[in-house]
Specification:
2 copies of one chain form a homodimer.
Chain A (H helix, E strand, L loop, with lengths): L5 H4 L3 H11 L2 E2 H11 L8 H13 L3 E7 L8 E7 L1 H22 L9
Antiparallel strand pairs in A: 1-3, 2-3
Helix pairs in contact in A: 2-5
The structure holds a DNA duplex.
DNA sequence: CAGATTTACTACGTCTGCCGTACTATGTTT
DNA sequence: AAACATAGTACGGCAGACGTAGTAAATCTG
């Protein structure tokens, strides 16, 4: 079983988070589950990686946080939600471009051997 | 102009080096130039990154070093050449598999917008 | 033939993102 | 009542990439 090492995914965790926040604001636990679902169970972001990404990206103004109740009637625990900013959208787009370039480059050094 | 950030390429520098050493033993300066050529000028490995990769990979027994003259008649400066080991070949193969998986995962989060 | 450039490295310290471990504290299910 | 899911925070360590700098021989260039 091949796993994705942190050195490989490094630099794309932020992109994954932003791609989810592009759709609508969300919070840690939900994003974590969405990443698992979207990746078809192939990747799970670590909690600490996720929350430190929030801190970093908020500092960089790629996201904004706000606190909201779980249900509109005011009961339930409060959660910290994140929303993508315009700067975050730009950053996401640039990361998508970078990905296309990276793919082109790396594939020159990779040998692909079909299924087995 | 999009550039490839170190956080993105991290984890693939070793793979690139090994893919070159798979063909034949080589040395630092040459590998550096080959990476530039093979990537079509899109990526240049930093010297310090390259040489620290040698140290790490030799310790991990993915490569072996030997010293040789530049020309067979014994003149010219000596160079440190590296040769890939069986363990290194295995590692390279596993990295290729990992790349296929990473691609599948990351692409779920990326939006591709043709040329422009 | 002197100076610039290319070749071929080594040393050292810093930065950053990822991760392990651990802890807190509700809410919900069995 | 206990277990599990939810929703985090705190803290420290690690490893790979990189900036800066320095050495030194070989080769090209005016």
């Amino acid at each position: 079983m091949v796993a994705i090492s942190s050195d490989v995914i490094r630099g794309y965790n932020d992109t994954m988070i932003l791609s989810i926040l592009k759709k609508e604001p969300s919070y840690g636990y939900s994003i974590s589950k969405q990443i698992k679902t979207i990746s078809d169970g192939k990747y799970a972001i670590k909690e600490t990686t996720l929350y430190s990404a929030f801190t970093r990206m908020e500092k960089n103004e790629y996201i904004e946080s706000f606190v909201a109740e779980q249900s509109p009637d005011g009961n339930g625990k409060k959660r910290t939600y994140y929303r993508i900013t315009d700067k975050g959208l730009e950053y996401y787009d640039s990361k998508c471009e970078e990905w296309e370039l990276t793919k082109e480059v790396v594939e020159n050094f990779i040998e692909y051997k079909g299924e087995e």
